[in-house]
Write a structure and sequence with these properties.
This protein has helices at 133-141, 178-191, 211-218, 229-232, 235-254, 283-296, 313-317, 323-342, 353-357, 363-370, 403-412, 442-447, 457-460, 466-481, 487-490, and strands spanning 6-7, 15-18, 27-29, 32-33, 43-45, 54-57, 60-65, 74-75, 80-81, 106-111, 117-118, 122-127, 162-166, 196-203, 225-228, 258-262, 267-272, 300-303, 379-383, 394-397, 417-422, 435-439, 454-455. The protein is α/β, with parallel strands linked by helices and 507 residues long. The chain has 3 domains: 6-81, Archaeosine Trna-guanine Transglycosylase, Chain: A, domain 4, CATH 2.30.130.110; 110-259, Rossmann fold (3-Layer(aba) Sandwich), CATH 3.40.50; 264-312 and 340-490, Rossmann fold (3-Layer(aba) Sandwich), CATH 3.40.50. The strands form 6 sheets. A 7-stranded parallel beta sheet has the order 19-20-18-17-21-22-23, sandwiched between helices. The chain has a 4-stranded antiparallel beta sheet with strand order 1-2-5-8, with no helix packed on it. Strands 13-12-14-15 form a 4-stranded parallel beta sheet, sandwiched between helices. A hairpin with a 2-residue loop joins strand 6 (54-57) and strand 7. It starts with 5 loop residues before the first strand and ends in a 17-residue tail after the last helix.
């Protein structure tokens, strides 16, 4: 049976979503036809909407009509904008016990000596400052696999997934308050990450972010090999020392065996980027269904991107396990309102141009679709950027909306797997955690099949339910955690996307 040309998401909505491009005359509701061309994924009015009246999608306010909108008219940035409205936070009213699933699901993980479980097995090089970035890259390049040339300098060490240099553009020219603490917290999260068997911390020697200070503040002594370029005598000698260290530990790093472990050992970062009008209908709800399955098996999921939760936070506070947890989330929203106002920006600066081309009009609309990635279980904790995630269940982490920065914080917090939904076609990786890419629509999936792992457009096509697709995503999570390679891993994505959040002035 051919699916209808539009999608109604909630009985209270006064817009529907175009399943494909609508031409004038296409039926959008009983007795109502489109009066103009409406692009795929965009909204069309199902009745008259007066100027100033709320526009509703998902049964929630996504904006307000900036002019009178006639039935059948395209609803987007030309006639819909932001506005203030009261939110009922109703802390904890929807929280309920999470029913555990039995028997527990398992995957083949790497059990470390301290009991933690890895999904990958990398050797890492973290840099204290941009001035040591190139030297770190030179060390890693000695061991770099080339997916196109077929070269494999690690052929004798099949259990080592690679040597990765994680470089960044800061570490000096910064104040020693919160900006430095945040950077060190991020670097320490990677230094401790279970997916690294061994780590080099590489500095220049004269930077603000001194290696010694990083080790002492974050209590990392004994966990890694530290090196300073100036103390070692320059680039060549540092590269030689770094290469020698990697060669020294390769055999030890390779001596791992995958064993059956429960799915409760998974902590999954939930990400979306290059979103479109279908993100909140297909890939995000499917990932939400998979998230619910993981939480019911005892695992953890991390939702982030605070500016992309703005306007939908009242739906999360209702799921908070306590008023304290809910108020922590609301406090983040107030901080971001102040932060953007201080910087001369506004929260609705997001959606991006690509998001808007895909049919997303306001940050409220994007937020409501984005939060679907976290499913329906209780919000058990709210943490700062790059803080360790220790609670089991659904956790929110404060991050910007920019995907690489957000995912960097989540992985620093302990995520050992990333699931990334996209409607426009983002290409992405986040070493040392493998990244699964979920496409929101079938045309983009077919166009970018080399980069996409899952086609969630099957929901839109009428071939699969959200729950069925979510079960398929959960199964892939377990297979990837067991060592199956993702599309982004086939292209060796994940080092250049390391992007710690930079706050404060650059001096």
């Amino acid at each position: 049976m051919t699916p209808p040309p539009v999608i109604r998401l909630h009985p209270a909505d006064n817009v529907v979503i175009a399943r494909a491009t609508l031409l004038p005359g296409a039926a959008v509701a009983p007795g109502i036809a489109a009066t103009e061309r409406v692009p795929a994924g965009h909204k069309v009015a199902t009745g008259p909407i007066a100027a100033g009246e709320p526009v509703r999608r998902y049964g929630q306010i996504i904006g307000f009509a900036t002019e009178a909108i006639a039935p059948g008219q395209h609803v987007h940035v030309q006639n819909c904008g932001m506005g203030d409205f009261a939110r009922d936070y109703a802390y904890g009213v929807d929280a309920s016990p999470t029913e555990a699933l039995t028997p527990p699901a398992h995957f083949m993980g790497i059990r470390r000596a301290d009991g933690r479980v890895a999904t990958r097995n990398y050797i890492g090089i973290i840099t204290s400052v941009n001035c040591s970035a190139h030297v770190a890259g030179l060390i890693a390049d000695v061991f770099k696999r080339n997916p196109f040339a077929g070269a494999d300098p690690l052929a004798e060490f099949p259990n080592v997934d690679g040597v990765v240099a994680l470089t960044h553009k800061t570490g000096c020219g910064m104040t020693e308050g919160e900006p430095l603490r945040l950077l060190r917290r991020t670097l320490a999260g990677y230094a401790r990450h279970v997916n690294f068997s061994h780590v080099i911390a590489l500095g220049l020697g004269c930077e603000v972010n001194q290696i010694g200070g990083l080790l002492a503040e974050q209590r990392l002594a004994g966990r890694l090999r530290s090196m300073d370029i100036q103390a070692l005598g320059g680039t060549r000698k540092t590269v030689e020392a770094g290469v020698a260290f990697v060669r020294e530990v390769l055999a030890e790093a390779n001596a791992v065996t995958r064993v059956p472990v429960p799915a409760s050992e998974l902590t999954v970062a939930l990400q979306c980027g290059g979103s479109d009008g279908y993100s909140g209908i297909t890939a995000n709800p499917a990932l939400g269904a998979a998230s619910d399955l993981l939480v019911r098996h005892g695992g953890s999921v991390i939702l982030s991107e605070t500016p992309e939760t703005y306007g939908a936070e009242h739906l999360l506070t209702r799921r908070a396990v306590s008023r304290e947890v809910g108020e922590k989330l609301v406090a983040l929203m107030r901080w971001w309102e102040d932060y953007t106002a201080r910087e001369g920006a506004e929260m609705n600066a997001n959606p991006s141009p690509g998001n808007k081309a895909g049919g997303l009009t306001t940050i409220l609309e994007k937020s409501l679709g984005a939060m679907a990635k976290a499913g329906s279980t209780n919000l058990v904790d709210v943490v700062r950027y790059a803080e360790p995630v220790t609670a089991r269940g659904f956790v929110f982490m404060d991050t910007p909306g920019y995907d690489p920065v957000a995912a960097t914080g989540q992985v620093a917090g302990g995520a050992n797997l990333v699931c990334f939904t996209t409607g426009r076609g983002s290409v992405f990786g986040c070493k040392p955690a493998p990244s699964i890419k979920l496409a929101t629509n079938s045309p983009m999936f077919r166009r970018m099949e080399d980069d996409m792992d899952v086609n969630c457009g099957t929901i839109l096509d009428g071939d699969e339910t959200v729950q069925d697709c979510g079960a398929r995503v959960f199964d892939l999570m377990l297979r990837v955690a067991s060592g199956e390679r993702t599309k982004s891993e086939s292209f060796d994505f994940g080092a250049d996307e390391f992007a710690p959040w930079v706050v404060g002035a650059t001096m």
